[in-house]
Design goal:
The protein is an all-alpha fold and about 55 residues long. The chain is built from three helices and no strands. About 80% of the residues lie in helices and about 0% in strands. α1 packs parallel to α2. It starts with a helix and ends with a helix.
Length: about 55
């Protein structure tokens, strides 16, 4: 289970340090914070624009 939590954190640019409880809390905060989700979506859009310009 900890491996999956760490992989999720890596894929979403979250800190991967800590025990399972800390990782779980970090992931819950990620989903509960709209600003983080909106910022992540914005970053993805910007990356797509940069890739298309090349």
């Amino acid at each position: 289970m900890k491996f999956e939590l760490i992989e999720f954190c890596k894929n979403n640019e979250l800190c991967t340090q800590g025990n399972k409880i800390q990782l779980k809390e970090r992931i819950e905060a990620f989903f509960n914070t709209k600003e983080k989700n909106e910022m992540f979506k914005s970053l993805l859009k910007n990356k797509r624009r940069i890739i298309r310009k090349k």
